[in-house]
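so im writing up the methods section and need the Methylthioribulose-1-phosphate dehydratase record in one place, dumping it here so i stop losing it
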Amino acid sequence: MSNITLEMKQEAYQTLRVIKETFAARHWFPGTSGNLSVRVGDILDGQFQFAITASGKDKSVHTPEDYLLVDEAGVPTEQTGLKPSAETLIHCEIYKQTGCGAIFHVHTVFNSLVSERYGDLGTVPIQGVELIKAFNIWEENARIEVPIVPNFAHIPSIVPHVSEKLNPTIPGILLRNHGIYAWGANSFEAKRHLEAFEFLFEYVYRMELLKATSL
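--- predicted struct ---
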């Protein structure tokens, strides 16, 4: 797409660098896990581009080859020896379904535990916790249900489940025993949403423990 300038690309890469550094400091990228993306430019006639973390990189360090640009099909838009994240197709689908501006995916102990605990139910129910307001849900004693989809080694097999379970009012979706994808209109909002989800998942887990020990 000709509307992507070098300045826009560099701005997206810098945004990803700052977010990557912040999340790495929280140990949200064990091994080389997780992936981050930011849309660059507008979505025009179903076509768009986004910057995404390259596959197999240690996200606790910075190198000149940490990111690349891909199109709406997850194909690199420039000649490069880098591979996009293995889960790029999930990012593609979320952008198509939501029109969001950024998507962040991390693996943490708490998001993995709650996705397995509630996996058969298909959602993580959360009610009456203050951080639900981070999703612009302001009702008293609000209840949300965070969707959970099955995880497969074959990434394209996950995409239809994401399409089916994605809830436009809940800016996140869990892969069972894998991790959370959170998104927002921009990187600031996506970061806020991800931080809220992580707080809520830890809350749910610890509340389950409290209930079990009080029996």
